[in-house]
Amino acid sequence: METCGKCRHFSRTKMSTKDLCGAWEMPTTAKREACGFYIPKVTSKEKRADTIAN
After folding, report:
1. 30: alpha, beta or left, given left = phi > 0 and alpha = psi -120 to 50?
2. Of the candidates 8, 2, 15, 10, which has an alpha carbon nearest to the alpha carbon of residue 26?
3. Number of compact structural domains in the chain
4. Contact 6, 37 (CB under 8 A)
């Protein structure tokens, strides 16, 4: 199961007690089941591999 915390739209700020989904601009939690707007995050390891390949 994919979760909100693994999505590119998910954001967490230190100033707020709530997490935010950038896709629908509403509060969410990291463990909530992902919605139809889910886009997986790109890890720094994947970014480095892509930079080296190009």
Report:
1. alpha
2. 10
3. 1
4. no
SS3 11: strand
| Domain span including residue 43 | 4-53
**Nearest CA-CA partner of 38 in 23, 18, 25, 19:** 23
All residues at 6 or more sequence positions from 3 whose CB lies less than 8 Å from its CB, including other chains: 30, 31, 32, 33, 34
pLDDT by residue for the chain (54 residues), tens only, comes to 899 999 999 998 777 778 999 998 899 999 999 999 999 998 777 777 777 766
Residue 19 parent element (H or E):
strand 19-21
Residues facing residue 29 across a β-bridge: none
From 33, 4, 38, 35, select the one nearest 18 (Cα to Cα). 4
